[in-house]
Amino acid sequence: MEGTAHDLLRLPLAELQAMARERRDRTRGTTVTYSPKVFIPLTKLCRDRCGYCTFATGPRSLRAPYLTRDEVLRIAVQGSEAGCHEALFTLGERPELRYPGAQRWLAENGYGSTVDYLAAMCAAVLAETGLLPHVNAGALTGPEMAALRPVSASQGMMVESLVEDLPAHRGAPDKDPARRLATLRAAGELGIPFTTGILVGIGERDEDWIPALQAIAEIHQEHGHIQEVIVQNFLPKADTAMRDAPPCSPERHQRAIALARVLLPDDVHLQAPPNLSDDPGALLDCGIDDWGGVSPITSDHVNPERPWPHLDRLAGVTEERGHRLVPRLPVYPEFAANPERWLHEEVRFPVLDRSDAAGLGRDDPGPIFPERVAAAKNVGDGAEVVLIGRRSGTWVSGGTVDPPVLVPGPRGAGPSAAVREVLDGHAEGHELGIGELVTLLTARGPDVAAVAEYADHLRAEAVGDDVTYVRNRNINYTNVCTFRCRFCGFAKGQSSLNLRGKPYLLGLDDIAERTEEAWQAGATEVCLQGGIHPKFDGDYYIDVARAVKDAVPGIHVHGFTALEVVEGARRLDEPLRDYLRRLADAGLRSLPGTAAEILDEPVRRLLCPDKISTDKWLECHETAHEVGLRSNVTMMFGAIEQPVSWARHFIATRDLQRRTGGFTEFVGLPFVHMAAPMYLRRQARRGPTWREVLLVHAVARIAYRGLIDNVQASWVKLGAPALRQLLQAGVNDLGGTLMDENISRAAGAAHGQMMTEADFAELLAPLGRGLVQRTTLYQRVPDSLAVGA
C-alpha cells in the first residue's frame, strides 16, 4: 500500500485526476452535495495558537467570551428562515483552560465547561428551530462527545496533519497527532457520524498526506463512521504567524484532493471548500462529491475574507461538468438510513423531518420549523391541527403554500448522461427495471424537467390533450376500524373521541339517500370506502352495493378496497373469487386501489403491519379482473419509504396489468402528514417534496406506457397550482369532484371537499387544454348528459 500510494504521487496530475473522477462517478453517479448551513461561532476564544488561524481571538477583542442563548437562537432562526438545514457550531478548543474570563462566564451561567454550554446551545437550536447541529469542537474525549450526541446530528474535527512538531502547530497542544487520532477512534466507538480532513500547505511535504489519509481510512474501516473527508488548502492571512508563508498552490491542492479520493474508501465522501478556490470547477475535476457547508446568511468565520460562492454559480459549475447540485443534511443519507446505529434517539425525528425520500435535505424553498401541536379539533369534515410557534413556509401535500415551479424547466438545460440514457432506451422500446426507474425517480436539477417533458410527450401520444374528470360522490360509511394503519387519520376505535369527531356508521337508508342526492347533482359514480367495522360480516358490503343500485340503477358503484374485500371473504369463510362474483352480482363494478399504500413488504411491515400483504393485494385485484371487475392502482408515498419502493410498486402493478389489463388508471397519493398519527408520534417525514411528487406522476406515465393510459393527480392532496404543473408532466386526469371527501381531510389536508366543473376549467385555462367529463371506466359522457349541457 505504501509503495502504491507513493507511486500515485508521481503520476501526472491529469492522470491522477482521471482516476479520482472514475472512482467518484462510479460510486456517486451525478450527485454532488452541499449543506445549506448557518455558522454559529459560539466562542472565538481558544487555548491553542495555530500559526495560520484568524478565528481564535483574544478576550480584549471580544465583547463577551461566549454568544448568549438569545444570540445563538437569533442566528439559528435566520438560518432556518433562509432555508438552511445545518447549524454549524464552530468554536475554539477549551478556552476556559487559558482564559479566567471564560471560566468565570461559564460558572456564572451555570456551566462546568465549554462543552457543557455547547450541548445546551445545540439542544436549544434543535428544539426551537429544527436546524440540525453539527459540532466542530476539536479534540474531545469520549465522554464529551457522548454528551453532545443527543443534541447533534454529526460531529467533526480536522486531523490536519500527522507530522510531529510542525511550526504551524507550535503553541497548540490540541493539535497533537495522537490526540486527534484518539478523538477519531472514540467517535467511531460511540457511533457518531464524523467529519475529518487534512490541511494542505502548512509546512508538510506531499508524502505526509499519505499517512494521514491512511490513518483516517483504517479507523473508518474499523468503525464505518467517517462520513466525509475535507481536503482544505492553506491560504496565508494577515495578523497570523504564517502571514508571509506561500499559499498552497492550486496544483498542489488538486493533487492532494485526487490522492485522497483514490486512497480513501469508496463510502467516504470527499469535500473541498469552494470559497477557497478561484476555480471551483477544478475541484470537481479532482473527484470531490461535496462542496461542504454553504451559508446564505453568515460568512465563513474561519476564512472571513473568502465569501461563499452564490448557489446559482455553484449549481452552474456543477452542471457544466454533468453533475447535479443537491442539498444534504449534516448527516449523510447512508447514516440517516440507519438511525438506530448512527443517531441518538433524540435526533432521529429531527433528521427525518428534514429528509427527503433519499435521505438528503428537503429541497423545497422556504423555512422548515418544528411543528408543535397545541391542540387538534374536529372541524366537521376533517381535522385541524392547531400549531404554535414559528410556522414553516415550504410546500407540503395538503398544505396551502404553492409549490416551486419545476416545469416547464429552464431553456437550454439538457438532461444528464444517466437520465438521457434511460429515456432514450425507453423511447426505443426498452422496459425499465428497478435501477432505471430509481434513476428517474431521483432526478435533480434540469433532469426533473427532462423527465417531465418526456412523460408529457407520452401522455399526448396515449390520450391526447383533453383533461378528464368524473362526477362522483364519496360515501365513507364508517370511520370505525379494527385495523391500525399508522398513517391513517380517518379511522378510529369504536369508542374513540379524538381528532376526527365521533365514531359513526351510516345505515343502508342513509347510503341510498346520499346516492340519490349524488345522481340528482349529476354524479355518475359513488365511491364507497370505510373502516373495517368489527360488527361487519362479509354480507355488509354486498348489502351496501345492492342498496346503492336499488336506489339508482344507472350509477356506477366504485368501492371496497382490497382490504375490505379480503376481510369480507374471510369473515364469511368464502373463496375470494366467489365473494367477488357476489359483489359484482350486487352491483359493484370497480375497486379503488387504496389499501395498496406501498407494495413493498419491508415498508408495509412498518406502515401497516396488520394489513393485507403485497401478494394478497395483487391477488385480490387479479381475481377481480378475472371476474369482470375493473380497478385502479394507487400509491401512497412520502411517509417512510425510499424511491426504490416506488419502483417496486410500479413493477409489481405493471406485471399484473400485463396479465389482466384490468387497471384503468394510476393515482398518486402524497402522504398528508399534519394529523397523521405516525407523524404526530415523530415516526414519519412530513410528506414528499414537490420534486418527488412531480417525478412520481411523470415516472408512472413512463413505467406504464402502453399498459395504463391514464395518470390521475389528487387535487384533494395537492391543490390547483400543483395540478397545473402535473398536467405538464404526464397527468391527464383530475379524478372526481368528490362530494364529501373525508379521508384526506381527516389527515389535515386543507383543499376542501369538492371541485366543480368551473373550478376545473379555471385550473386548465392557462394551459389551453380541454375539459371532458368521463365515466369511471374512461368513456366520455354524452354531451346531452354532461353537466352544464
TrEMBL record:
Keywords: 4Fe-4S, Iron, Iron-sulfur, Lyase, Metal-binding, S-adenosyl-L-methionine, Transferase
Designated name of the protein: FO synthase
Gene Ontology MF annotations: 4 iron, 4 sulfur cluster binding; 5-amino-6-(D-ribitylamino)uracil--L-tyrosine 4-hydroxyphenyl transferase activity; 7,8-didemethyl-8-hydroxy-5-deazariboflavin synthase activity; metal ion binding
SUPFAM superfamilies on file: Radical SAM enzymes
The EC number(s) this enzyme carries: 2.5.1.147, 4.3.1.32
Domain Radical SAM core: 32-275, 467-705
InterPro entries reported for this sequence: Aldolase_TIM, CofG_family, CofH/MnqC-like_C, CofH_family, Elp3/MiaA/NifB-like_rSAM, F420, FO_synthase_su2, rSAM
Keyword Plastid: no
Pathway per the UniProt entry: Cofactor biosynthesis; coenzyme F0 biosynthesis
Alphabetical list of Gene3D superfamilies matching this protein: Aldolase class I
Similarity comment: family membership: In the N-terminal section; belongs to the radical SAM superfamily. CofG family. In the C-terminal section; belongs to the radical SAM superfamily. CofH family.
NCBIfam families assigned to the protein according to its UniProt record, in alphabetical order: CofH family radical SAM protein (TIGR00423), F420_cofG (TIGR03550), F420_cofH (TIGR03551), PRK06245.1 (NF004884)
CDD domains: Radical_SAM
Cofactor(s) of this protein: [4Fe-4S] cluster
HAMAP family: FO_synth_sub1, FO_synth_sub2
Reaction(s) the record says it catalyses: 5-amino-5-(4-hydroxybenzyl)-6-(D-ribitylimino)-5,6-dihydrouracil + S-adenosyl-L-methionine = 7,8-didemethyl-8-hydroxy-5-deazariboflavin + 5'-deoxyadenosine + L-methionine + NH4(+) + H(+); 5-amino-6-(D-ribitylamino)uracil + L-tyrosine + S-adenosyl-L-methionine = 5-amino-5-(4-hydroxybenzyl)-6-(D-ribitylimino)-5,6-dihydrouracil + 2-iminoacetate + 5'-deoxyadenosine + L-methionine + H(+)
Function: Catalyzes the radical-mediated synthesis of 7,8-didemethyl-8-hydroxy-5-deazariboflavin (FO) from 5-amino-6-(D-ribitylamino)uracil and L-tyrosine.
